[in-house]
Amino acid sequence: MECEERDILVIGAGPGGSIAARTTAASGLDVLLVDRHEFPRYKCCAAGVLWHNIEDFPEIKPVIENYNHRMVVHSPSLDRKFEVVSTDDYLLGQTYRSTLDEHLAKLAVASGAEFRDAHSVKEIKFLPDATGAIVTIMDKASSEEHDVKVKLVIDASGVSAVSRKMHPRLTTWNRENMLMASELDVSMDSDEITSRLGEERTVHIFLYFNDLPGYAWIFTKEHSVSVGMGTMLEFKGKMLKGKQLASNFKEYCSFLEQEGYIKPGSCDTSKTRYALIPSMSIKEGTTFADNVLLVGDAAGVFVSALSGEGIYYAMLSGRFAGRTACDAFKKGKMDAKTLSSYRNAWQKRLKSELNYQYFARNYMLFEKRRCEKAIRWGLKDKAIRKFLRVFFTGRYKINRWFALRLVGHYIRLKIKDALGMLGEREKREDYK
Fold first, then answer.
1. What predicted TM-score, i.e. pTM, was given to this entire model?
2. Are strands 224-232 and 214-220 parallel, antiparallel or unpaired?
3. Mapping DSSP to helix (H, G, I), strand (E, B) and coil, where does residue 269 land?
4. What's the angle, vertex CA 160, arms to CA 47 and CA 244, rounded to 5?
5. How deeply is 377 buried, as exposed, middle or buried, from its count of CB atoms within 10 A (0-12, 13-18, 19+)?
């Protein structure tokens, strides 16, 4: 079997993989980018692009279809809601993953990478002493296989990352660390979207909908709406079954039709797409080993534990991985010690932000009573609305100072609530 040689193989042409390929190719390295799907391809993803994503990666602006200027957050009981409106700027932008991924892959090619879609990785043999890897790739159109010898693998192939299964120092994760997302793209013409969801292209968030820990959403695009739901695969020791998830999602779609958010009969739930999203704490995640860097969902930690946002963190991890790879090639070493600078780079930028979101999710989003309280407090207090806006739009960096201010404000609100200064209080037993 003929064996070609490359400097780097990037597996997966999603946002993280394409950014990594573009970064390394731009420095003059010989980069091969592969994806098992034929492009353009559909992917289960709401594809709401948050403010910080567009600000940090302005090259994605050409594929932003429209901008949302209003968001409504609903309580678990559906009795309360508050809204955030931006009159002078957007809250978030909307695109499609098929469009975004194809755009980023083209930018990688323009920087010098070679892209082969419909090519899947069948096997990776990591060589002794961190000298490289031999990767067997299959052309899905012809079913022909060939080997590629590389010095470094950047794996951005998602939750079922190939390198995790084949590298002796990497492990797979347990299902209890997973989020399950359901998503359906519902076609609607622009005028109907405006009549039902307003000129602001309102985004709706339903916390703890139908007693599922997590949230459901409506993301409004130009000619369709993304309807979805995200929840933990395991909660309080119980595994979520596929039938239960499908049933809850069907109920959610029926609710949206009955309430007039979308046109009755427009949800064909047989077309629902599902996706597993790893959501581990930073302590549980492994992002590198000899001759391999893990990017995006393949790493398990580059996702907002609270909102489920993954595009931005995947792109950041791809940028950090690309820079680490360039430095490693200058040193001529691909061992874990050299590649550990990748962990140092992303932790310096993201550790606090991801940790606080992980804590906030476990504290609030998994407790129905606390979700209800957050909305009630949000109706009474501007700072709480600002806090929720931070998480759902990514407008501010979440650091220790911000967290300390939030905790102090939370204590003051709790005292006011106990004194009856924030309106009617919920009883704990009402939300068991």
1. 0.91
2. antiparallel
3. helix
4. 70
5. buried
pLDDT band at 163 (very low <50, low <70, confident <90, very high): very high
Q: pLDDT tens digits for 191-229? A: 999 999 988 889 999 999 988 888 999 999 888 999 999
Q: Nearest-5° angle of CA 407, CA 410, CA 411?
A: 90
**CB-CB contact of 225 with 262 (8 Å):** yes
CA 205 to the chain's CA centroid: 16
Chain-centre distance for alpha carbon 432:
30
Q: What angle do CA 119, 123, 128 make, to 5 degrees?
A: 130
432 pLDDT higher than 60: no
Question: Domain limits of the chain?
Answer: 4-43+98-173+284-350, 67-92+175-278, 367-419
CA distance 298 to 310: 11
Q: Give the CATH fold of the 67-92+175-278 domain.
A: D-Amino Acid Oxidase; Chain A, domain 2 (3.30.9)
pLDDT at 429 over 50: no
Q: What is the CATH number of domain 4-43+98-173+284-350?
A: 3.50.50.60
